[in-house]
Amino acid sequence: MRRSVFAVAATAAVLGLTVVSPAQSASGGRPTIELTASPQPVEVVGLPCLPSSLTLGMTNTGGHGVYVDAELNASGPVGLERGVVSSWLPAWDPDHTVTARVGVTAPRTAVPGDYTVTVRADRTRLTVPVRVLPLPGKKEGDNLALGEQAAASSTHGNFRLCGAVDGDRNPDNWSISTGWNDGTRSVFPDDYSVALGRSVSIGRIETYTLDSARYPAGRFGIRDFDVQVRTGGAWQTVDRVRGNIAGKVTSTFDPVIADAVRVVVHDSNDHAYSRIMELEVYSR
Ligand SMILES: [Ca+2]
């Protein structure tokens, strides 16, 4: 039974169609809501700062405008950034789809497997398959900070806290917020840290600040900063960087056992914001 729902939803996604409940066709003159979701399945990894997402589409195919509360529920260990997506849907002609992005997460302890998110709006229902993938192994040579829990002194409203541990260090993506930007303009210091989830040997930290053709590091990157590791509950500075104008700064040091890494920014080249594209941590 569940499999058939998956199959219908997956087929609809491929065809770009919508899944409409049978009850809706009997709704008479009431506004008709169609729901879509992509991707299908939603794939998610059980790391705290590597969120996945689904994009929910809501279309009013009826003749009257309607205010819709789409309720979302997840099965098993799957978590949702929000449980309701609300929108006014005018009776556009031709039909127009309103979309909303909803973050999907899973805890580190989640059992890999297939789960679902169900969406209900008015009398329309949609079942979205979610696949929880196994945790990455993080072997020797892997980035130990990838997807781990970030924290910051502040985060600008247009950016995401997890942006600097999301595995994307392409500065061309800065405008879609795959980086961390602090929220206190012209006030320093700012700091950004990553808890690694366990104690590990660390010998190299790579700090990528904003550095693109449009936003060169010499004008927009972080300039003066300390790179720190947490050992035995205390922060220890392993590198002091001053006057930086490069997009990537590699800090190497005698390996230490630590459970977190932090960058404390004392100034940036525009003296306004601290910007980190990606913070990567390696055993050596
Ligand atoms: Ca990033």
TrEMBL record:
InterPro entries in alphabetical order: A-galactase_NEW3, FA58C, Galactose-bd-like_sf
Keywords: Signal
Record protein name field: Alpha-galactosidase family protein,F5/8 type C domain-containing protein
Residues of the F5/8 type C domain: 131-284
Gene3D superfamilies (UniProt xref): Galactose-binding domain-like
Keyword hit for Signal: yes
Organism: Saccharomonospora cyanea NA-134
Entry annotated with the keyword Signal: yes
